[in-house]
Protein: Glycosyltransferase 1 domain containing 1
Amino acid sequence: DHLEAAGHVCLLKDACDLESSSEIARLIEAENLEAALALHLYRGGRLLRGHGIPFGIIFGGTDLNEDVNHREKNEVMGKVLEEARFAVAFTESMKETAQTQWVDPVFTREVKARVKRTAGVRLLGEMPQEDLHAALKNCFAVVNSSMSEGMSAAILEAMDLEVPVLARNIPGNAAVVKHEVTGLLFSDPQEFAQLAKRLVRDPALEKEIVANGREYVRCYHSWQAERRAYQHLVRTLEGGVGE
Structure:
């Protein structure tokens, strides 16, 4: 009703009644469709790919709650979003789920373009672990700006390699980094800039953070202790096989 009230002529179709992309192509040609709006990223969105008409997506719920957990469907939905002009999420949690699952291609291109124009900034791809650790050892600090973390392996690796850590103050990071003890926690870009400058200007703070971080990893994240723990857990599983 909203669209028709604005003067648009609308054609409503159930995605379940449209079985193939070729059927969509015939419909677009027969009805001379100029644009499309799909409800459900997978069921509706996948049918609109590659037809040359602009389209938008309205997340349905099961696309983000269920289909996202199926690898093939997840890949298809990511490709749909690359072609979509926009996507509508009814809740903030749905928006966050989509942003976590699929990187915004337009934003990605903007970041890469800005990196090329910015002196002293390099964007690197994945690296073998040995090369990564060698690079980390030559860094002044490791920055973790994640919006969500479980337990950051990157932070623990940096501590183990005696590299100072600056991390966003979120629960996952704060569980590992104690502010001004094993690292520095920031809540916004301005605080990050202040703490980074402080770290550069205060060698004593850097030395203390590095020493505390290394000791923290040795005491609480020892790979030897972790190995023993997992070996014990697996033995408890073996003991229950014959029961």
